[in-house]
Design goal:
Blueprint (H helix, E strand, L loop, with lengths): L3 E6 L6 H13 L5 E8 L1 H4 L8 H22 L5 E8 L2 H12 L3 E8 L2 H6 L2 H8 L3 E10 L1
Parallel strand pairs: 1-2, 1-4, 2-3, 4-5
């Protein structure tokens, strides 16, 4: 089946990560596999709010975010299945596709909320990863509107 799976972490929808890990474990079947994760910090790209925040405060916020990502990864991924857990800065879908290129996973598991009107106008990271990934992408649907 699969033995090398990439699961992006979205801290705004962290409740989806354990579900994705469950799916990954099912996809491993009887094989041993590794779950890799990526969190993309897009605050420097998409937010002007950090221009209002002191550099020291912003630095502390990023340190806390990194700790949270690591904690989520270690809490939900069984130790024997833990692969890499990276944090990057940039545009979410671009960084996921870059990580795919570097890691060459068998599959990427991405979470997606139930589409709303905004998704027709803006699209979503999951959609862009699905369209542009070189390999397999499975979308794990959440029934909530994001």
């Amino acid at each position: 089946m699969y033995n090398n799976i990439l699961i992006p972490i979205d801290l705004e929808h962290v409740e989806m990560f354990p579900r994705a890990v469950e799916v990954a474990i099912q996809l491993f079947g009887n094989e041993k596999g590794k779950i890799h994760s990526l969190y993309v910090d897009s605050t420097k790209i998409h937010s002007i709010s950090f221009t209002q925040v002191d550099n020291e405060v912003a630095s502390q916020m990023r340190k806390e975010m990194k700790k949270r990502v690591r904690r989520v990864f270690e809490e939900h991924v069984p130790e024997e299945m833990q692969g890499s857990c990276h944090i990057r800065n940039g545009v979410v879908y671009d960084e996921i596709l870059e990580e795919e290129s570097r890691l060459q996973p068998d599959v990427i598991l991405v979470a997606a909320g139930k589409p709303g009107v905004a998704s027709y106008l803006l699209g979503s990271n999951a959609e862009k990863v699905l369209r542009h990934a070189q390999g397999n992408v499975f979308v794990i649907r959440d029934n909530k509107h994001w």
